[in-house]
Design a protein that fits this description.
The protein is α/β, with parallel strands linked by helices. It has three domains: 232 residues, TIM Barrel (Alpha-Beta Barrel), CATH 3.20.20; 193 residues, 2-Layer Sandwich (glyoxalase-related enzyme like fold), CATH 3.30.1900; 69 residues, Orthogonal Bundle (Arc Repressor Mutant, subunit A), CATH 1.10.10. Helix content is 43%, strand content 15%. Strands 1, 2, 3, 4, 5, 6, 7 and 8 form an eight-stranded mixed β-sheet that branches. Helix 2 links the parallel strand 1 and strand 2. It is globular, with a radius of gyration of 27 Å. The termini are far apart.
């Protein structure tokens, strides 16, 4: 298999919510088919898909380049100016760069959010080490200044970028051929005029960028602003944009990418052809990819630092507390059966390095009890005599003959998972206690992603296509729920639901809606807060995951969902708030 002569360094996945179309698995398959040695992920202002992307790329012998297309304030990130959010492409060159990228992205959400998560030059100067910066797309600061004929101002900002990133700054060039796309429309139409204007702006910006590159000796790099994998996906991606913005496909005065289906994952030959006059811009994509060297530690657990007595290990403290609890529950003289079971469990717990976890959970439960907060432990944790003696669970596993191995055994690859139910009105008290005890900067709740499910996809697609609500609503109601109430996919529904299949086969409107809905189905739609999961890190949480505020702006959440958070070693504590416990209290 020959090595590709180009690497994509500017690419949006489904985690550029309702803007990028590719799911990561689909992207990796495409990269592999085209024999590209590496590929970058640069979603809008976030790092949601980084760990999934990293894992899948490595599993397919592809070098993952971890990045983000951040939003840059030209002035001060804390000033609320709606139009002060310019694009800049950042790529992590090494592990330090990856950690700095997490800091930058987090600051954008926590300190600079105003319509967009923005950072400024001050933030870049502080956390620019280990990062490669590309000047950005047509919405970048340099491009906008050059289009507005502010060459001297562009020169000033370029000089500042070079001070921050030094030899790791590249002038990014994109050629999207809007002039060619315009030929598909009437010369008097509004779409034609807009495409010609975009072409003129791109040409004007490129002329200025080349002049700057020559003056400052800055290398060029060619990218394509990838939002979907194939040209015929343009309509589907445009539907996502309409769902995001609440517009309809046939509206002209809106954000439209449909008119020029050039924002796709081009082959190396296509990119070489596009930049045949600037071969160094293509070659530099390989140079950048070769310079990237990142290894993220996965599968190793990092526990919060639980304060221990001097010269004692977590295992020793846990054993003392367990035996103290056992003597209170059973008797001061413990039977051989109890001792044997406790020592067996303690040995497995300590050997696997989980002693601190049990001490932390017991500490939470003790806090709850002291503050009259009702708690309840669910699941296999009831099989642990250690948990029972610590007061974490309330069921005697010896009396009810519950096995410990279902909860934890030497072969379990994941740490123990003790699900703690608490009264919903008091859940925040426990979370705040963790923040005070371990540090607010070390705690976050875990995010989760709402996705485009079958019925919602059908209704959304029908709306943006301009059909009356009754048309897609009728189709959506013909999609049955799956087993145990879980949603069924449209494909499954077409195989099972005869009325839906009849509509699909006989009604062209139904076929159009259902075909397009299947192509957006399953994509990430929005970010929200996991109902239970909280993570606490041994150091700042942004050493492990980027963070942001939840959609309501009330709590800080991770940008890595549950599985990704666990993959990078964060210990999850499940605190599920239940109304029933509040009533009982």
């Amino acid at each position: 298999m020959s090595r590709s002569k180009f690497v994509h360094l500017h690419l949006h996945t489904e985690y550029s919510l309702l803007d990028g179309l590719p799911m990561i698995k689909e992207l990796v398959e495409k990269v592999k088919r085209l024999s590209m040695p590496a590929v970058a992920i640069t979603d809008h202002g976030n790092m949601y898909g980084i760990i999934e992307f990293y894992q899948q790329a490595l599993a397919n012998d592809i070098k993952p380049i971890l990045g983000s297309e951040i939003y840059l304030s030209a002035t001060d990130r804390k000033q609320k100016k709606a139009k002060d959010a310019f694009h800049l492409t950042l790529l992590a060159q090494n592990y330090q760069g990856y950690k700095n990228l997490m800091k930058i992205v987090s600051i954008g959400y926590l300190e600079g959010f105003y319509y967009r998560p923005r950072v400024d030059l001050e933030v870049l100067a502080k956390y620019g080490q280990g990062l490669i910066a590309l000047s950005g797309c047509g919405s970048s600061l340099l491009n906008r200044l050059l289009v507005d004929d502010k060459f001297d101002k562009a020169r000033e900002y370029l000089n500042r970028f070079l001070e921050i990133f030094k030899d790791n700054f590249y002038i990014e060039l994109q050629r999207h051929h809007n002039d060619l796309a315009a030929k598909n429309f009437d010369a008097n139409s509004q779409i034609y005029q807009r495409l010609i204007q975009l072409h003129q702006q791109e040409v004007r910006a490129e002329k200025g960028l080349l002049k700057l590159a020559k003056e400052f000796g800055v290398p060029l790099v060619a990218t394509n602003d990838v939002h979907y994998l194939d040209p015929d996906h343009a309509k589907v991606q445009d539907i996502l944009v309409c769902i995001q913005t609440g517009r309809k496909v046939d509206e002209v005065n809106r954000l439209r990418m449909l008119d020029n289906p050039d924002y796709y994952f081009k082959s190396a030959d296509e990119m070489i052809k596009d930049f045949n006059d600037l071969p160094e811009a293509v070659n530099n994509t390989l140079k950048i990819a070769d310079s990237v060297d990142i290894k993220i530690t996965l599968g190793q657990w990092f526990f919060p630092k639980f304060k221990l007595p001097p010269r004692k290990t977590a295992g020793e403290v846990l054993k003392e507390k367990v035996y103290q609890g056992a003597r209170k529950i059973y008797s001061t003289s413990l039977s051989q059966e109890i001792k044997k079971r406790l020592d067996y469990e303690l040995n497995i717990i300590d050997t696997k390095g989980y002693s601190a976890y049990f001490l932390i959970v017991q500490d939470m439960v003790l806090f709850a009890k002291k503050n009259n907060i009702i708690t309840n432990t669910r699941g296999s944790a009831a099989g642990s005599l250690v948990a029972y003696c610590l007061g974490i669970s309330s069921v005697d596993p010896l009396k009810f003959q519950l096995p410990f191995e279902r909860f934890l055994n030497p072969y379990r690859p994941l740490p123990p998972d003790i699900d703690l139910d608490v009264s919903d009105i008091d859940r925040e008290k426990i979370i705040n206690y963790l923040a005070i005890k371990y540090g607010e900067e070390k705690e976050a709740q875990i995010c989760t992603f709402g996705r485009m499910l079958a019925r919602a996809s059908v209704r959304d697609v029908g709306r943006v296509l301009g059909y009356p609500y009754s048309v897609p609503d009728k189709l959506a109601k013909l999609i049955p729920f799956g087993s145990q109430g879980f949603p069924m996919t449209i494909k499954q529904a077409l195989e099972i639901s005869q009325p839906l299949k009849a509509e699909y086969d006989s009604n062209s409107q139904a076929k159009e809606i259902l075909d397009l809905a299947q192509k957006v189905e399953g994509r990430a739609r929005h970010i929200s807060v996991h109902a239970a999961a909280v993570v606490v890190a041994p150091t700042e949480i942004t050493d492990f995951t980027p963070v942001q505020y939840d959609p309501n702006g009330s709590v800080i959440i991770t940008q890595y969902e549950m599985h990704a958070s666990e993959a990078v070693g964060l210990i999850k504590f499940d605190l599920l708030g239940l109304t029933n416990l509040s009533i009982l209290g």
